Amino acid sequence: MFGKKKQPPIKSLIAQGTVIEGNLKFADGLRIDGEVNGDIRAVEGSASILVVSESASVCGGIYADHVIINGRVMGPVHASDLLELQPKAKIAGDVSYKALEMHQGAVIFGQLRPTSQEVEEKPVLKLAANNP
């Protein structure tokens, strides 16, 4: 409704107390409450959402369409659509995004890079006094 894309359902959960060692691929939606030591990638070709909850910790890169972070991430974050940083988000790594929503309290130790390279060109300003 009103131009918003429907979010994919969250079908997978890494529960609090669970530790994953190694890279992880997922489809649709994934919620992390535990710990992941490795890269997390969404399967290409379909919409994806990744939620890193307040109790979660990720040591590795994150690559998904819509990323919501309220926990700790040590590594680069690439949100090809929307990146939401909740108040307790702490990221140590470079961040790239198409759209960014950042709440007060979220912290990033790295560079922010928007993925859309469209730079709005401003028209050249002509002064009336310079016209012959």
Can you describe this structure?
The protein has one domain (10-130). The protein contains no helices and 15 strands. Strands 1, 3, 4, 6, 7, 9, 11, 13 and 15 form a nine-stranded parallel sheet that branches. The chain has a six-stranded parallel sheet with strand order 2-5-8-10-12-14, with no helix packed on it. The mean pLDDT is 89. The protein is mainly beta and 132 residues long.
Write the layout of secondary structure elements.
Elements: E1 10-14, E2 19-21, E3 24-26, E4 29-32, E5 35-37, E6 40-42, E7 49-52, E8 57-59, E9 62-69, E10 72-74, E11 77-85, E12 90-92, E13 95-102, E14 107-109, E15 112-114
Parallel strand pairs: 1-4, 2-5, 3-6, 4-7, 5-8, 6-9, 7-9, 8-10, 9-11, 10-12, 11-13, 12-14, 13-15
